Amino acid sequence: MARIAVIGSGMGAMAAAARLAVAGHRVVVYERGRTHGGGVGRFERDGFRFDTGPGLLHLPAVYRDLFVKTGKQTLEQSVELVQVDPASRHLFADGTDVRLPNASRAGVLQALDGAFGAGAGERWSDLVNRAREVWDATRRPLLEEPLRADWRVLGRDPYPAAPVRRGWLGGLFGRGGADGPPTLAGVARRELGDPRAAALLESHALAHSLDPRSAPAAATVLPYIEQTFGTWYVRGGMRALADALHERCRQRKVEFRFEAEVTGIVEKDGRAAGVELADGTVAEADAVVSGTDPALLPPLLGGQEPWRAEDVRPEPGAGGGAPGRLTVFLALRGARPGDTAHRTVVHTPDREAELTAVFGDGHGLREPCAHPTVTVLRPDDPAVRPDEDHEAVTLTAVVAPHGPVDWTDGAAAEQDAQRLITAAEAAIPGLRDRILWHEVRTPADTGAETGARGGGVPGPALAGADGAFLRPANVTRVPGLYLAGGWAHPGGGLAHAGMSGALVAGLIVEGEDWRGSQ
What we know:
Elements: E1 3-7, H1 11-22, E2 26-31, E3 42-45, E4 48-51, H2 61-70, H3 75-78, E5 81-83, E6 88-91, E7 97-100, H4 105-116, H5 120-144, H6 184-191, H7 195-207, H8 221-229, E8 232-234, H9 239-251, E9 255-258, E10 262-268, E11 271-277, E12 282-284, E13 287-290, E14 324-333, E15 343-346, H10 351-359, E16 374-377, E17 390-399, H11 410-424, H12 431-434, E18 435-441, H13 443-450, E19 481-483, H14 494-510
Parallel strand pairs: 1-2, 1-13, 2-9, 6-15, 13-19
Antiparallel strand pairs: 3-4, 5-8, 6-7, 10-11, 11-12, 14-17, 14-18, 15-16, 16-17
Helix pairs in contact: 1-9, 1-14, 2-14, 4-5, 5-8, 6-7
């Protein structure tokens, strides 16, 4: 039985902890905050409940596998999973209103034909079919096994813009053409035609902290995953999933120490040998799992970087360059109408202005966006509202991280929050007359609560773009030190964080030559 010290209690860290405990190891989690879950938090007031992190789950199979492998109760016996239908509603500036059914290829085709005109659904379906080839080619190297030492092969984009089939290590990844490497925005422009369909595709990238102008064509896998495996909600909010995972860890005898900030990683004989806490305590361990942003690790290692020269490195700068989220919680008087979509995306009328505001103009300059894309979440869940005569609504927009924008400026944050409310009126007629109160959360709040640089939210790992969208490997240059969670391989998002934890557990249990489950 080995002693495992885990830094942080985010979803990836807890996923690793539960699996390691089942394998017979003694696991202690050190969390600087007062509670578990990392970015999957909860805000409560006056009988209203809101998720402070992701509001929906894709690829629930990741957590089904985790709960099956770590105990007797399945995921569905631990939380109530609900398939959201329609998966999403999309509102455009020209008045177009389209509802996309959940996990129905034929239904999406029909809906897009009806909204955008004949042929739009078929063009979208063809794109999703090509995205399936991306999924088939990258599922194992990007999701199911540790990052390869020859990770640069993943820098070539797998999106099959041309019908070349020479194996994913050869021709499939070898295209770019005279115009350079393909981007998601380029795919949208060339293959969808209609600007509304292009905006629909690009919104999947933006929701995952990706700039469609630079994201590789392989990012088409994101709508493929959602459309193929469905969109799911957990009754009580996504925080209920974090609570269930925390309880599973406790059942497996994982020990949690809250308000226990790790200030150093102890090395002995060239190996990670424990952690030092802010109070000066040293906790010895045979291995250390860090669930924090790897860019924050050098101070814990005496100034030494945890990755090797040939490894993927975190992006430099505040927030690692990753966008954050501006969120507005709305407590509304009045019942939720029965035909309300759980998720509505109100698209910006000026996509270029929005992308410049979030990602900059190429020279680091960012200007506020007057009309951001706003996601409106309206769960049909009695557990998140005080009674049937009220409604809990969450508005979210992707924004620049704290640093480029001063999100501690309360007046500026409130001004941007009002922009979100204005946009949401397209989805909720008479919205302002129904507001009892609202609460604003900025990337600065996220950073203060989770430790994420700039309050940034990491995106998933993707092939293409010379490896720019890969995350640092789970194995580091320091034997016995491992990386888990959204800032490590295979990247951000609930499902990806869970997979990251599974990979770290496999590496510790089976050894560093382990290549994943067959």
